[in-house]
Amino acid sequence: xxxxxxxxxxxxxxxxxxxxxxxxxxxxxxxxxxxxxxxxxxxxxxxxxxxxxxxxxxxxxxxxxxxxxxxxxxxxxxxxxxxxxxxxxxxxxxxxxxxxxxxxxxxxxxxxxxxxxxxxxxxxxxxxxxxxxxxxxxxxxxxxxxxxxxxxxxxxxxxxxxxxxxxxxxxxxxxxxxxxxxxxxxxxxxxxxxxxxxxxxxxxxxxxxxxxxxxxxxxxxxxxxxxxxxxxxxxxxxxxx
Length: 241
Fold this sequence. Notes:
It is built from five helices and twelve strands. By secondary structure, the protein is α/β, with parallel strands linked by helices.
């Protein structure tokens, strides 16, 4: 495989119902989107940082912080109902045309301000080594009575009717019954590389709770402010893996 082009794509539409204009709201001195731009700029393996938006004000802020906005996103791809992957495909198609190959791209949602140092380079390196994609995941506990479904009798029934699995070692040095994991969009890296269709995926477990901050509502934004004000997250602490 030759040298891959590597870019970061930050999808940032202007509309937001939960917290209006959240992508450019000032979070402890700088717009929320700036945290994702700076995380991408700090990654040595990222060649270009692209912001995808239909909003001219967001575009101006992104340019001010050093990102590229080579074009505005079509408005039909910026509605609340438009799947985010369509915006990503629009960026890749506009930059490289239909026959995209040897491209590695990381998707950074601007609503996640807390990313450990080295995380993006580590995930990109996994895709460069042969994985199809590299994703961040978060853990959660599951017991017999964690989740329910509504049955035809209008009663709630457990989704885990059997006994939980045996204990297993969990990152962080503790043990827990039935620890499960789900994708969490702090960062995801994908490769448009021929022959990778059946390659495995790599998953990185997030153990810092601050990294799980996802700003959708005012309460989330206030939480992020408190994390920064009380130095509960250090951007210079290396990613543990």
